[in-house]
Amino acid sequence: MRERQAKLLADDFTFLEAPKWRDGKIWVSDVHDKRVYAITPDGQREEICQIPGMPAGLGFMPDGRLIIASVLERKLMQWKDGKLSLYADLTGTIPYPINDFVIDAKGRIYIGNHGYDYFAGESQKPTNMHRVDPDGSVTEVATDLHFPNAAVIINDGRTLVVNETWVGHVTAFDIAEDGTLGNRRIFADLTGRGPDGMCADAAGAVWIGCYNSGEILRVLDGGEITDCFKFDGCGISCDLGGEDNHTLFLTAFIGPEEEVLQFTRRSAILTAKVNVGAPFSQCTVDGTATGKEHVP
User: Fold this and answer.
1) Within a domain: residue 58?
2) Number of domains making up the chain
């Protein structure tokens, strides 16, 4: 396992979640500050919008719309042409705060939820994952997941991988043509770590932020860990992008965990160069594939 180092891009945030590279910027939710930002490669930040229900998961639809999970409102919001509007109201389907999600090439959103009222101190319990289709329909696609968190789609759209934070599992499913999930299996067993955010690379590996161990790891199918970034605090999430498509953007909370819910402004985004870039489907400029080589 290679020990890696990252350099600071920007700090003075509360808790940076769900970074996504798009249009020359890294887009990210600052959860407890209730804001979404876009940050340039030189660290300049632009406030995109405010989400009173706390933003978490971010993702871009095939047509370029930014989708934002409003955690406590249990709604998916969309940002388009400088305006924020409702994309999907999940209050009638999902009874608990929503969280992270992934969007497939057909615009289907696979989203997890807490499964219990985390903020009220309820006991942990398993929950379900849902798919939100472009026509607005919501379908339960997986059950008995322990805090389904970040998810990615790999293998040319054939496999969904999701983090089960409280049990340390990275779980994989086959995706059928109609969007249903099957053939559940363990992609990696990270028992003892709390897998939080995640991105995939062009080789089919996943980079995972491990909240309680302060790590961001590169993990192969089967569980082998090839690379590790270690922080004095909490590892949160990551994404691949940059002008060279080989920049890993990492988010972390630099400080003791008890300060996270005190909303101390110790979250930061960092960068590092890596050998394997993002999947080809993510190599876009204004939504159009660049044709860049993604594996050097």
Assistant:
1) yes
2) 1
Residue 156: which domain range?
A: 2-289
pTM of structure: 0.93
Q: Is residue 285 within 8 Å of residue 276, measured between CB atoms?
A: no
Question: Which pairs from 31-35 meet CB under 8 Å and 24+ separation?
Answer: 31/55, 31/56, 31/71, 32/263, 33/263
How far is CA 195 from each of CA 24, 113, 161, 229, 235, rounded to the nearest angstrom?
Answer: 27, 15, 12, 14, 9
Q: What is the mean pLDDT of each run of 10 residues along the chain (296 residues)?
A: 96 98 98 98 97 97 97 97 97 95 97 87 92 97 97 96 97 98 98 97 97 96 97 97 96 93 94 89 39 36
Residue 222 belongs to domain with CATH number = 2.120.10.30
Domain presence at residue 59: yes
